[in-house]
Amino acid sequence: MRKSFRPQSGQLQRCPVDPYHIVPDKCHCVDYQTLKLQENPEDVPHGEMPRHLQLYCDRYLTDKVAPGNRVTLVGVFSIKKLFQKNKGNKDKTLTGIRTPYLRVLGIHVETGGPGRAEFKQFTPDEERNFKELAKRPDAYELIAKSIAPSIYGSTDIKKSIACLLFGGSRKRLPDGLTRRGDINVLLLGDPGTAKSQLLKFVEQVSPIGVYTSGKGSSAAGLTASVVRDPTSRTFMMEGGAMVLADGGVVCIDEFDKMREDDRVAIHEAMEQQTISIAKAGITTTLNSRCSVLAAANSVYGRWDDSRGDENIDFMPTILSRFDMIYIVKDTHDVKRDEVCFIRIG
Q: What's the CATH fold of domain 124-344?
């Protein structure tokens, strides 16, 4: 391997003859992979960015994980030096910046099923309570009442959200195709009807929950993107919200504020629950086995019964991906408003 000489302060500035030469036939090459570890979305405090750490894998540890997997790692924490290119030439100079990284010694992918992470173990008392609840005939109603109890009404919506959180069973058809078991729900209607509060509640109670706003979301941010690594200058893939929420729930607020091109990009992720990428020489398919809970407003701000379908500004292709669509109206009812006032007060 070639050894480079960088003169330090106080040394001669004359470059010596390099005595090392690379012999390709006698070199021993091993597989090498660079990964970026990101903090779990549910562990990130509100208003803060998730923390990242660079990983270095070699030999049999390469190609063990895919974007969106939750892993447990064992490795050696190290620090590397950064080099900066000089303007006008190709030489690199050493900077005073140090970057931490982890040299991986072992990887364990935490999967308790298709797209499901291994969650905490329940105590015997909790398991006993679950079994007693399952035997009750009103278990469905009790679970629905526990969904956002501070929000009055919206019983049918809460029942649908309960089904969304529990999810269904994925089925493998005889021809090899898969029928998704996750449920997608769309809340469409007037402002001030607690749609965003329901989305926030689902994000908090879901073991894997990601919340995003339609105005600040793009196709790459929801699915996946290909970026260039500033260190190695090679292309690498980063998973979006629907990849990170594999096995959980993605809550998209202000769904009507998204661009139509961005909504088209999630068609495959919502129905086939996969994301196909073919960019910059990277061709792969990522899993996005998650439920989608979206909230949107009417085109006219408030729902107008006289205009019918004109209130909805969505293509039929995206509406067909939702299993349940609810029209939420802020009806002018004195008794209902009095009850809401008493509960708030």
A: Rossmann fold (3.40.50)
